[in-house]
Design a protein that fits this description.
Helix content is 59%, strand content 0%. The chain has 17 helices and no strands. α2 runs parallel beside α4, α8 packs parallel to α10 and α9 packs across α10. It is globular and about 65 Å long. The N and C termini lie far apart (55 Å). It is found in: Cell membrane; Membrane. Belongs to the ammonia transporter channel (TC 1.A.11.2) family.
């Protein structure tokens, strides 16, 4: 059963860091359900799966000469932020004590992180909650770093991930999900990361694109004249993300219960509706059904439902999918209006989609869906949104969204501005390196074997024919790869 602790916790009454007992003299598992353990462990793996999914999604949308670099950048976030989370990220975000804006270092180096009930739920110990939330922390910079496509150096990206996770992601996640955070105390509702994950990463991607500058050949009206180089990668990335989102949203119930099931159900509905909505919008222009359009719309639906997944009924998920698909589709044009070369539409999908989801949560959140966890009723019941007559909730959601976006955008710009002044951390590759592509210039490896064959032929002194598929990789083809 997963109704709660099997034995009541009798630890310190004060909210202080505590290991939760001595495993040498007592069984620390008796306080928790094995069913909850199994579910959250599986959800942790599902969220981890999303990170390479992001890499494949971005890789397919990009040019082939930078395809592997985007997969590498997404996946390296797992290592960089994984260490940051161990070092001080978890403590800054989910310590049991702290101010209204940031936690303290009482769990530095994961000290005293063991069997004490976590700040997220009394049904999960700190240790398991740390593992699960660490996947969210690694995922978020991976979402943002797609903005470095075609012209961002690898080393600054690595440094940026560590710094950004520390001074942007951790504070925003703290004020949203930690009981001491200002947004949590205000009454903001964010089930699985509308602000800490999506709005924060969307704002960071926009800031990164602004600070890097436009790619060579960028046109303010039409962007760059090329199509996604590998739609199969886009589909593969979408599959990883869609499957992983069941752990992302479903696991945010922090237990194996009806609320987790409902979160998975509405997630699936919103994704499907969002994908088909985007397809229809694209069909009206070209009279063709777009695979990339469906994948983009599915992601828009998933992003929109994220903050609401544990608060809304199935019928509302249809609205989230439709509105998310429409708004995010039109939001892809914003980058042309403001003249920022944001190559992966991260701002449109995650930044705008997260805001849409937050605001719709303020309208459609219901107390009876939250109560499906078996504990959010009575004095613990949420007030809900407009459907429950709680009119102020929309204002809370708006305040949280604006604060998260503004903080992430401004601080990201400051981080990148300072980094660019430090020798060795200049953000952008040279014009020559941009021409040959990040795969060759920064990695020395390629996403496709035939590129390496062409490279060997080049070194032998015989240039590839301009009409060959591989020729475009060296910048000879009409689309300059």
């Amino acid at each position: 059963m997963s109704a709660g602790p099997l034995v009541e916790w009798e630890g310190p009454e004060e909210a202080v860091a505590d290991p939760g007992g001595n495993p040498m003299i007592e069984d620390l598992n008796v306080y928790y359900s094995t069913g909850d353990f199994a579910w959250i462990l599986m959800c942790s793996a599902l969220v981890l799966l999303m990170i390479p999914g992001i890499g494949f999604f971005y890789s397919g949308l990009a040019r082939r000469k930078s395809a592997l670099a985007l997969i590498w950048l997404a996946f390296i976030s797992t290592a960089v932020v994984g260490f940051q989370w161990f070092f001080w990220g978890y403590s800054l975000t989910f310590s049991h004590t702290g101010s209204s804006f940031i936690g303290d270092l009482s769990n530095f180096g994961l000290m005293k992180v063991l069997a004490q009930p976590s700040v997220g739920s009394s049904k999960l110990p700190d240790l398991l909650f740390c593992l699960y939330q660490g996947m969210f922390a690694a995922l978020t910079p991976a979402l943002a770093i797609g903005a470095a496509a075609d012209r961002g150096r690898m080393l600054p990206c690595i440094v940026f991930m560590f710094i950004w996770a520390t001074i942007v992601y951790d504070p925003i996640a703290y004020w949203t999900w930690n009981g001491n955070g200002w947004s949590f105390k205000m009454g903001g509702l964010d089930f699985a990361g509308g602000t800490p994950v999506h709005i924060a990463s969307g704002a960071a991607a926009l800031a990164y694109s602004l600070m890097l500058g436009k790619r060579t050949g960028y046109n303010k009206v039409n962007g760059l004249p090329y199509r996604p180089h590998n739609v199969t990668h886009v589909v593969l990335g979408t599959v990883f993300l869609w499957v992983g989102w069941f752990g992302f949203n479903g696991g945010s119930a922090l237990a194996a219960n009806l609320r987790a099931v409902m979160a998975c159900l509405v997630t699936h509905i919103a994704a499907g509706v969002g994908g088909f909505t985007w397809c229809l919008l694209d069909y009206r222009l070209d009279k063709k059904w777009s695979t990339v359009g469906f994948c983009s719309g599915a992601i828009a639906g998933l992003v929109a439902i994220t903050p609401a997944a544990g608060y809304v009924p199935p019928w509302a998920a249809v609205i989230f999918g439709v509105v998310g698909g429409i708004v995010c589709n039109f939001a892809t044009k914003i980058k042309f209006l403001i003249g920022i070369d944001e190559p992966m539409d991260i701002f449109a999908e995650h930044g705008v989609g997260g805001i849409v989801g937050n605001l719709l949560t303020g309208i459609f959140a219901t107390d009876y869906i939250a109560a499906l966890d078996g504990s959010s009723f009575g004095e613990s019941a949420i007030p809900g949104g407009w459907v429950n007559g709680n009119w102020i909730q929309l204002a809370y959601q708006l305040a949280d969204s604006v604060a998260g976006f503004s903080y992430s955008f401004v601080v990201t710009c400051l981080i990148l501005f300072v980094m660019n002044l430090i020798p060795g951390l200049s953000l952008r590759v040279s014009a020559e390196e941009e021409e040959i592509g990040l795969d060759d210039a920064e990695l020395g490896e390629f996403a496709y074997d035939y590129v390496e064959i062409t490279r060997s032929v080049d070194h032998a002194g015989t240039p590839p024919a301009a009409t060959s598929p591989a020729a475009s990789i060296k910048g000879v083809g009409s689309d300059k790869a």
